[in-house]
Write a structure and sequence with these properties.
- This protein is α/β, with parallel strands linked by helices and 343 residues long.
- The protein has 13 helices and ten strands.
- It has a single domain, classed as Alpha-Beta Barrel (TIM Barrel), CATH 3.20.20.150.
- An eight-stranded parallel beta barrel has the order 1-2-3-4-7-8-9-10, surrounded by six helices. A two-stranded antiparallel sheet has the order 5-6.
- α12 (300-309) links the parallel β9 (275-280) and β10.
- The longest helix has 21 residues, at 195-215.
- The model is unreliable at 1-33 (pLDDT under 50).
Length: 343
């Protein structure tokens, strides 16, 4: 990659030499702690706020916090759903109210996530679009810290040169449930698609994200989804080995792992020492549909055994797709089952 492109990717978050020395101390501290980050060494059970609300712009987590807090979860994961929410919803006044609500239930913010539209241009080869995404990423990091979280999270974006016919959320386009004669599962690759260029730029952009995260004393977790730049544990390890920074970690979603035919406990062992957080969901026997908790084939006992074996001490949080039933009852069933398995 040309040096100018590298400088453009990091220019807005460039650090002074003195700041770099300070950050090296932050990194050393991160490298000398367990990846999960909990000081008491226990696996904690959480629930994502968007189990109880949509991911459309302006959605408030207030009702979800009440539901999750009343059930007795250890923590909650919150999210910025849309770019405009950074200024229009997550104001200091709103953050203050939510902090009081979290304190009322003694809920930790396990991590603070940015939905795909907020940071999708982190994979853009256009420097201006990429820098806007980096600025949004840092603005979200500031919000996360005010909420008391020490981890920010994204699902790795997919290349901007890759799409599905008709558009839509590309990671969900992994099968055809009722293919018509002659129909193919087709992805649209732009003529300019060049994987090496995309990958090398994403490595540099991830470094730029880490520079911004560490100025705020935070950590950065990347989640994998189908067709994204980071689709699985192996690709995350490739990224980590390019960067080698203790502030960079993995958010493993057991459902998306299983849907790509990898046994989640094996993936957990692969990312030992880099695993910051888990999203937990169930899956049907064909590995196609994320069913409600307890009705699928996910080996939850094996997942907990793997987490204990690898020394994980972070959050395992329910991420449940809608199913038309009682979501609160489903979440409570998850909480009780995890408490029993963890012991």
């Amino acid at each position: 990659m040309a040096s100018g492109a590298v400088m453009a990717a990091t220019s807005a978050g460039a650090l002074s030499a003195a700041g770099a020395d300070q950050l090296s101390g932050v990194q050393d501290a991160v490298l000398n702690t367990d990846a999960g980050g909990n000081t008491d060494g226990k696996i904690k059970v959480g629930c994502l706020s968007w189990v109880f609300h949509s991911l459309s712009a302006g959605q408030s987590p207030v009702e979800a916090i009440d539901l999750i807090g009343e059930m007795g979860f250890d923590g909650i994961e919150l999210i910025i759903s849309a770019p405009e929410d950074i200024k229009q919803f997550w104001t200091d006044d709103q953050i203050g109210k939510i902090r009081k609500q979290l304190d009322q239930y003694k809920l930790e913010v396990s991590q603070f996530a940015f939905f795909q539209p907020v940071v999708e241009d982190l994979t853009s080869l256009d420097v201006d679009k990429r820098n806007i995404a980096l600025d949004r990423f840092e603005a979200g990091t500031v919000i996360a810290k005010k909420l008391g979280s020490n981890i920010v999270n994204i699902v790795a974006p997919w290349p901007r040169e890759l799409n599905q016919p008709g558009g839509g959320y590309l990671p969900r386009y992994y099968d055809l449930s009722n293919p018509q004669p002659g129909q193919k599962l087709e992805l649209l690759l732009d003529d300019s698609f060049d994987w090496n260029t995309i990958w090398n730029q994403y490595v540099e952009t991830t470094k730029a994200c880490l520079e911004r995260v560490k100025t705020h004393g935070m950590r950065f977790s990347i989640e994998h989804h189908t067709h994204c730049v980071i689709p699985d544990a192996n690709s995350f390890l490739l990224l980590w080995n390019e960067i080698r920074d203790g502030a960079l970690g993995y958010n493993l979603d057991v459902g998306w792992t299983q849907s790509q035919r990898e046994y989640p406990p094996v993936a957990i062992h692969k990312v030992k020492g880099h695993l910051f957080n888990l999203h937990i969901r169930d899956i049907d026997g064909l590995m196609r549909r994320f069913v409600q908790f307890g009705e699928g084939v996910m080996d939850f006992a094996g997942i907990i055994r793997a987490l204990k074996k690898t020394g994980f001490n972070g959050f395992i949080s329910l991420e449940q797709d809608g199913f038309g039933g009682d979501m609160k009852e489903n979440a409570k069933r998850y909480l009780d089952a995890m408490r029993e398995l963890i012991g």
